Amino acid sequence: EVQLVESGGNLVQPGGSMRLSCAASGFTFSNYAMSWVRQAPGKGLEWVSTISDSGGSTYYADSVKGRFTISRDNSKNTLYVQMNSLRAEDTAVYYCAKVPQTGHVYYQIDSWGQGTLVTVSS
Amino acid sequence: IQMTQSPSTLSASVGDRVTITCRASQSISSWLAWHQQKPGKAPNLLIYKASSLESGVPSRFSGSGSGTEFTLTISSLQPDDFATYYCQQYSSYPYTFGQGTKLEIK
To answer: What is the pLDDT of residue B106?
Structure first.
């Protein structure tokens, strides 16, 4: 059974930094791309970032480009996102998600973690 | 690519057949997924490649369409189906979601 368990969410001041982690199990982590998707309170889903299976390719939403960095450690089956220069509008539940990949082709999100809440406030 | 869902809210009764529409601002071929989200829970994949049913998803759910217009149909609503539904395009980055359709009990 696929399991994705996020951690690291907390309260942080505007301008601060935070790193989220996602521990994966139940599948061969190094064979899949991985994504972060967020959901602000009472709002819809917003894709944030995707990293390829090897970690060699990364993609970002314009809203986080230059501030967030996605990474992965395939030896630890763990996905990360380093979030810097945080703003109030980054407040959201952050979901880790699994994305099938074949070569340079990425497919639909097919599994989701339970999410971790990041609150940016003074 | 912008994804626009309609309606934003849908009121229906158990046993009803309902259809939700998702329109893309440009052609995405069949690279469209539908996700269901219940309050306080993570989303869950229902349909991928516009019309393929994810393993374990009840057959009352079906998807259709290609290019720019897509539909999600629930053939006979069950109490467990009252939730919010999102379409998602994965034709190109940035991935984008529709704004969601909240399915409410009439």
So the answer is: 87
With an 8 Å Cβ cutoff, the interface of chain A facing chain B consists of 35, 44-47, 50, 59-62, 95, 106-115
Q: Is the pLDDT reported for residue B32 higher than 90?
A: yes
For the cut 90, the answer to whether the pLDDT of residue A17 exceeds it is yes
Percent of chain A with pLDDT over 90: 97
Q: How many CB atoms lie within 10 A of CB B90?
A: 24
Rounded to 5°, angle at Cα B19 from B16 and B22: 160
Interchain contact B12–A (C-beta under 8 A): no
Q: Where are the beta strands (DSSP E) in chain B?
A: 3-6, 9-12, 18-24, 32-37, 44-48, 52-53, 61-66, 69-74, 84-89, 96-97, 101-105
**Pairwise CB contact (< 8 Å): A62 & B96:** no
**Interface contact B94-A61, CB threshold 8 A:** yes
Rounded CA separation A113/A115 (Å): 6
What distances in angstroms separate CA B63 from CA A17, A23, A50, A51, B56, one per listed residue? 41, 32, 25, 28, 15
Contact B33 A45 (CB under 8 A): no
Question: A98 with A108: CB under 8 angstroms?
Answer: no
Each residue of B59-90: pLDDT tens digit? 999 999 999 999 999 999 999 999 999 999 99
Mean per-residue pLDDT, A56-66: 97
